[in-house]
Amino acid sequence: MNFDNIVDKAKVTFEDVYKKAETVVSVQKQKIDVYSLEAKLSKSYEILGKLCYDAIRNDEPFDAESVKPVTDDIAEKIQLIENTKEEILKAKNKKLCTKCGAQIEKNGVFCSKCGAKL
Ligand SMILES: [Zn+2]
Questions:
Q1: pLDDT at 1
Q2: Which of 64, 86, 105, 118 is 20 to 30 A (C-alpha) from 48?
Q3: How far is residue 32's CA from residue 25's CA, in Å, rounded to a whole number?
Q4: Residues 6-24: tens digit of each pLDDT
Q5: How many domains does one find in the chain?
Q6: Do the domain assignments include residue 94?
Q7: How far away, in angstroms, is 36 Cα from ligand 1 center?
Q8: Ligand 1 center to residue 117 CA distance, Å?
Q9: How confident is the model at residue 14, as a pLDDT?
Q10: Contact 97, 116 (CB under 8 A)
């Protein structure tokens, strides 16, 4: 038995495990980012709702232009959430079923949930 081969194999295995652990940590971080962004998004929707409610309640015309900073902020957060979710899928080597939205293996041909061909 060649000792160098054993060492090389052990090294490769260790690097694989290390890489996997690193991916798990980064995916966990990204999931926390998504939760945090979704909470902030809810707050932005709340602010927009309050501005809209106040205008209606006070019988004032609702000026869409005046709330543009809030709607821009909402659009930005939605985009960030989508991007982060995409990065999570990529890191997990998965994709979404185009029919039901389930997470499936990136190179899967059929959806394991609804059976749709992809
Ligand atoms: Zn599906």
A1: 59
A2: 86
A3: 11
A4: 888 887 788 888 888 888 8
A5: 1
A6: yes
A7: 28
A8: 8
A9: 80
A10: yes
For tokens 């927009």, the residue is 48
Look at residue 77 and tell me if it is in a domain.
Answer: yes
| Interval between CA 86 and ligand 1 midpoint (Å) | 17
Structural domain that includes position 26: 3-105
Whether residue 58 has pLDDT greater than 90: yes
Å from CA of 42 to ligand 1 middle: 28
> Hunting for tokens 């309640």 — which residue is that?
57
Is 75 among the domain residues?
yes
Reported residue count of the chain is 118
Question: What's the CA-to-centroid distance between 100 and ligand 1, angstroms?
Answer: 4
10 Å CB burial of residue 32 (0-12, 13-18, 19+) is exposed
Centroid of ligand 1 to alpha carbon of 68 (angstroms): 37
In a domain, 114, yes or no: no
Helices (DSSP H) in 1-118: which residue ranges? 3-57, 68-91
Residue 106 Cα to ligand 1 middle (Å): 13
Cα of 82 vs centre of ligand 1, distance in Å, is 19
